[in-house]
Amino acid sequence: MSSWLRPSERAELRRSSFKASVYTDEGQRRRLSAMVDIRRSNRNRDLNERRRNAATLSHAQHRTTSLEKHLGILPQSVQKLYSDDIKVHLATIREFRSLFSMDLDSAIEDMIGSGEVAGFVQLLAREDCPELQFEAALVLNNILSETTENTKVVVDLGAIPMFLKLLRSTSADICEQAVLALGNVVCDIAIYRDFVLAHGAVFPLLQLINRNVELPLLRTITWTLSNFCHGRPQPNFEHVKPAIPAFARLIHSEDPEVLSNTCWSLAYLSDGRHCAIQAIIETGALTRLIMLLTHSSSGVRISALRVVCNIAAADNMWIQHIIDNQVLPRLLNLLTTDENKRIKKEACQIISIITGGTNEQIQAVINGNIIGHLVHLMQTADFETKKEAASAIYEATSGGTNDQIKYLVSQGCIRALCDLLTHVDSSTLMICLESLENILKAGEAEKHSGICDINLYAQMIDDVEGLDKIENIISHENNNLYKMAVHLYETYWLVEDNFEAMPLGGDAHHTTDYRNQQASVPPGHYDSG
Length: 529
Prior knowledge:
68% of the residues lie in helices and 0% in strands. It is an all-alpha fold. The chain is elongated, with a radius of gyration of 29 Å. The protein starts with 6 loop residues before the first helix and ends in a 35-residue tail after the last helix. Keywords: Protein transport, Repeat, Transport. Residues 1-61 form the IBB domain.
């Protein structure tokens, strides 16, 4: 992919690079607990081992004795699962659940090995005894919350259709266990997600929402729906589209967890999908989503930022939509008051998408008094945020008018860009060099128009030691950076001093030849995650 693109092409590249396409960190978010007595297992067995080693010797001996005692009754317990006596069933299930309360990693493995899981799956069908269904679902959720391999065992035993049926139970407790189980099943494997969605799982969840269920169940439902919307490849949009109107209502909730889950659902759906963005816009949800950018919960702010970023990344029309809905004042608020580094970084991402739009959209950012704060972040923030802020300035220099570039210069962007020329990150160096070239071109235009006798911007770069740093990049091991630095040096400084132009790569071809070569580090193309 060539790094030499027209501003409109560059803006498109930036949009595509900002799509939140993976969401690996969010995709592995918390597993909700089913009840107070459901143990949430930690998948990191090394951590569990360290915890066990930290315990006292007597405690460890006690746990070992308890484990041996409980595992010793497993064969008998398996037979009891198939008893005709409901009381025996309930007592047996509670014996199994006591294994989980002991926090023993091997308990589930032994249960699977002894064949007990099949018995619990069969108990899900006991409509004559809701208490049995509930207890069986509790045990299965403990198993599902462990590993992908455990999930496969439960699914292969035919549990998915049974959990789907339990969504229509008259018992709220059973419904919650079924919702939680489906959320656990689909969060790891897209095939299971697609199977669940193809069997219409969204509709009973929407019916539960419409029943004004209690908050704990609503949190579980929204978590499971976010898992329905998540993953690669993306789910069939027609299967999840019916949930969008419900999401538009849920973003007015006062509960941060419900809000965060719902915004993640919308973020997953809007990732690169114009049809989903259109559906979201049509619900009127955009105004509320932008309001959530300054919510008191950082989790809500982050998830709402992702939705807005996806909408902005689609095309200039959607950029204008978010501008019209007053996104810029809220982004400014995040840049100036939010202490969360990730939030500042993602706010800069959205701004860079906006500055990659039309002249009018660049002007909206200027009018919003945002440029000076971007420059400040380039000088003071953590490196990732600096890079995003620099990208926003780059986009503005690429598509902005000479007057707009003049304003950027007045806000101190030349010094900030030159200061970043000492960083080792190649993509950041290219962003800064190309930004400086865009500024220098504007300076040349002013010189040729007779406004001044010299390129004032070239002089300003030299005054802040930017020229020295450009000269240093001439020896950079990255060939594209070397060529770019030579190009700037020859075009704006060396030629004026009447020196002989230095060769590129050992030959005497014109410096502009390298523009047709493949760029190993195209500016603005890096992970937005």
